[in-house]
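Annex B. Sample input.
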Amino acid sequence: MFSYPVSADFHTDARPAAVWAAFEAVERWPEILPNLIAARIDPPGPLKTGAVIRSIAGEEIMPLDIDYRVTLAEAPHRLTLEVDADDWRGRTDYTFAADKGGSRVTVVSTMEVTGKLLKLQMLVAGRRMTEQRASALRARTRALLTLAERLAEEA
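Annex B, continued. Sample output.
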């Protein structure tokens, strides 16, 4: 099995509770994530272990359904999401800590490649694909932190 980790650290002026609120405001994610068409928590309610974030990404003419299982939810400090796809499994761990009047956010994401074709692609272009994942992870987290700052202002 091939494993490809990426990680990043962030700071935001929003406190951990506001950061958690942004991650929990799943239905608002399309406001800040340009390729996301819709998202919801199933069952409806707060983020909790066992819940599933159901999302539809891509273009409306060819959408892609992605389900994120919440495998750890310790509001407002830790969140783990997992994805099982045909050729890969993903796990993303988020840690939110109070820091200088705001929050420090640490994200660690691992992709385990299980499909033969994707393994071959990763052997050929793994570094570039991992860099793309890291870039997407940073962009997605920055967008969620922007939402956290909006939510803090709205409160």
